[in-house]
Amino acid sequence: MGANAMPILLASLALALLMGFAIQRGGTCLVAAIEEAVQHRRWTRFAALLEATLWVMAGLIALRALGLLPMVPMGFSLHWGAVTGGLLLGVGALVNGGCVFGTVARLGSGQWAWLGTPLGFLGGCFLAHYWGTTATAMPMALPTWLQDLPPALPALVLLPLAVRGGWILHGAWRTRAAPQSAHLATLVIALCFLGLFCVVGAWTYTDVLGELATGRFMHLGLRGLLLPALFAGALLGGWTSGSWQHRCPRAADLARCLAGGALMGTGASLVPGGNDSLILFGMPLLWPNAWLAFTSMCLSIVLALRLTNWLK
Question: How many domains are there within the chain?
Fold first, then answer.
């Protein structure tokens, strides 16, 4: 390993570790956020997840304005497979008991049954690839609004979010809190994602699982090493918060996580992208299929929760 590669490796591992830590301490999960909104009329967690999209968008604008924006992978134009994929993501997350973010948080608390979720996700991606039901490539160029930034856009976006970020950090400093509030956690997650984007490209762990399922593991390189670092950060978060408890998985829980992960993996192949990829990359770039899939996922979770409550 060259002299220049070692700092990149260490920085990337530290960012992935911190991201996992923040996910666990903030209890980040789309299912929990929607359940909180439906049952208790509280929108704190859901707003925090959407705020993460704004943080990433602001970071991309800042990088573009400074001429430091790395090469952005091609996106996908609007296609109806995103609706079906989002539906499967939502149903799979409910069956699993948490979205892909929530899975990391649960594993960080020592709930080992959720090890079945990434395995199921991997299997779902593999089956979708084998059956030829993955999203058809319809590449899009970098959005024009990001290519040619209007002169006033950086100030209009960055200044309000800078004030908001300062307020969140001030509150955390005043209470001496680690990243455990929903808004502080998503701020840390977004900043870690942007840092990794500058170093290794757009990185989410569901994308890594998708690449493994389609036989592209030889091309992962450093990106593959970040996966265990993410889960190690979540375990560190659970241990330092006192919420870590060794819980042997029951067969029923493991089967549920495998099934939920398989549904999410299949849905992510249709979109393409898991809800972490949608929130942290597709939605900040204003890709229509990402917003369509996210909306479909949210609606499926809301309808399923309301149906469950009605049946009870």
Answer: 1
